[in-house]
Amino acid sequence: MAEPGPGPSGGGEEGQPGPGDKEEAAPAPKKRRLAAGERYVPPPRKLSSGVSFGAAHFAETSYYFEGGLRKVRPYYFDFRTYCKGRWVGRSLLNVFSTEFRAQPLAYYRAAARAGRLRLNEEPVRDLDIVLKNNDFLRNTVHRHEPPVTAQPIQILVEDDEVVVVDKPSSLPVHPCGRFRHNTVIFILGKEHDLKELHTIHRLDRMTSGVLMFAKTAEVSKRIDEQVRERQLEKEYVCRVVGEFPEHEVVCEEPILVVSYKVGVCRVDPKGKFCKTVFQRLSYNGKTSVVRCLPRTGRMHQIRVHLQYLGHPIVNDPIYNMEAWGPDRGKGGNIDKTDEELLKALVKEHCSKQSLDILGISEEDLNSSAENKDCGNSSDCTKSVLADPINENSCSAEGTKDPEKDSKDPERNDIAACPLNSDSNLEMLEKTKELCSCENRDGQTGEKSSEEKDPLCVECKITRQDPSPKELVMYLHALRYKGAEFEYCSKMPEWAMEDWEE
Fold first, then answer.
1. Catalytic entry in 166, 204, 316, 387
2. Dihedral (C-alpha) 157, 162, 163, 169: value to the nearest 10 degrees?
3. Does 401 participate in catalysis according to the annotation?
């Protein structure tokens, strides 16, 4: 969705009073007498602020491991939001038909009949109902998550204040887009009993390395001030194409965000000031290992600067693609408009069946029930460029821009189930028992046979899994140093001087 809804929820998880909260008897609000035919809307519920993930969230489903991948069993999940300001006075049917166009109206009617759509916790019987301020919407969906590497998360440091881990590539830091349980936050909670962690900084999903969490809000605030005052020294290592210069290279080209949705940036004079210092560590005749010292913290800064210098990261799934043209973006030479660039990138990933690497899916690309063919780049990018659906993407996760960054661990906006055929929509009436959001699987590490959801297109599709190698990008956060701490990880295997592909 485009943004958290107005009202106290911001589209997040419902909260409960903390253990230190005092229960005080509040006078019951006076209920206004309703006019004939007027619908009553309950007052907004008070939701707790801060960290929102606990045992109930972690128990929604379980993992299993297959082919070097960590996989999540499909599960039922509630997307929830308060009524957006722009929805007030419009019918639910109108909102679905204009802002959730990836699904046919037949889906929403069937979902309503099955009790999957609820308004103020009451089943929606009529999609023509007119929305009012503070209406609370709930949509139950059958959720599938993309696989990630089975490489374990290594705990580097744990004390009373912080948890520092070595994050594997392919794992988002926190729930976003299609990822929820296959994230660092959820794996730490489910497998290491590390809960109520506060995000201090973030790494892109495909970037591995040192990642810090605070155990308290006070520690988070203290370190966050160092981040904002640029007192935090960061050191990365990467493997790039070609022979990088032996001397120190400083790149200060400004960077402009092309798309937060897809997660693409480029060098542009209208962009924000950036500075990265590079130093070659080794060269094996084909590729170079380079130390990277970012002096600012823009989105994809290291990757964009390396592309501009003509030495993109060897296996960068965005900045080392043919879509950038014959020079692959060297010197800012692209010769495409932003829209043409996005279309070319999406088309190239469609042809390789690797859209998950961009953090988007076919459903994100479809702005209507008919737009199913990724062979047409116009169809593939229509909703990416214009549709307000599913905008809580992982793509911009690496951003630490104070104007864009949010401490909220999840935007839990209402969203639609994947599309399916009308015949399957009719089957829903016979399978209402599937709508339970309770976890049906045990917490074992073995794959079990899951029930199929008649509304879920993912249940009908057999996708080719990525190989573990495809889920690694050669960019690693090696060291983070602050005023009172310094945390380091081991040099990754691909960064060794004698390493060969």
1. 204
2. -100
3. no
